[in-house]
Amino acid sequence: MKKYFITSSIFLLFFFISFSQIQTPQPSPFSNTKQKVGLVDITIEYSRPSMKGRKIFGSLISYNELWRTGANQNSKITFSGDVMIDSTRIKKGTYSIYTRPAFDSWELIFYKKTDNWGLPSVWDKNLVALTTTSPANNLPFQVKTFTIALNNLDNNGASLDFFWENTIVSFSINTLTKTKVIFDVEKTLKNNPSSQDYYKAAVFYLEENLDIKLSKYWIDKCFELRDEIPYWMLNQKALIYFAYGNKIIAEEAAILGLSLAKKTKITDSIKTLKQTLDFIQAN
Question: Do 205 and 217 meet the contact criterion of CB atoms below 8 Å apart?
Fold first, then answer.
């Protein structure tokens, strides 16, 4: 009987514990953001504390002291390829993000050891991959939850932005896209390139304001290899020929592209070709 009572008590205790656990929101929820920038995948992992009525910079976060740049485990950033930040080349890999906020600027530090909980117990200057500084600017509104974001994306990079309270600090990331693509273009176009290879090379040289003569040559080679020309390729041909200085061919390509776009009945495509045609005719 005693054995039965003990067994029953253990079962009831387990039952009570299993079905009475209370789940509450994390005070600093974890965030994992992945963004393709140029040819590089950038991943940011960090925990996001909120203001909760507190004064942040100069109070909760002391000025001129090293900060984990978030909450809980140290914040991390991962690059799938090499990048440049200021004049420092950062090898692909994962780094801890540390900052030293001041009243009018922040120091950004990438640290090679990433299994820290907060700040390293012993700081090793040999593990510092990057140290750079950027101005701290005031926002006309309040950001209540700490945010790290990648903004202002283009082919060659983005800004790494830190927001909290009334402060924003931005650092420029150069993903070295231009150098990488030029190398790939030269290599690919020497080895039996497809029409798509010529097309990508032509558009990239146009967008990056590189050799427009080569861009024109490659778009022509692209068209030579195709039986059918889609409207979006005609749009790019129009822009390339306009940049090259041949407005007549540019206008002809835009008119043909617009007529093909109208057949698709896709509003955005029609609008894009119409804008290209209007731009060529107005200039």
Answer: no
CA distance 14 to 17: 5
Give me 83's structure tokens: 């990048």
- This prediction's pTM: 0.79
What CA–CA distances, in Å, run from 135 to 68, 112, 132, 144, 168?
A: 19, 24, 11, 20, 9
Share of the chain above pLDDT 90, in %: 84
Q: Where are the alpha helices (DSSP H) in the chain?
A: 2-19, 177-188, 195-207, 212-224, 231-244, 247-264, 267-282
Of 101, 41, 93, the residue nearest 69 (C-alpha): 101
Domains of the chain: 30-174 (no CATH), 178-282 (1.25.40.10)
- Compute the distance between CA of residue 91 and CA of residue 41 in angstroms, rounded to an integer: 13
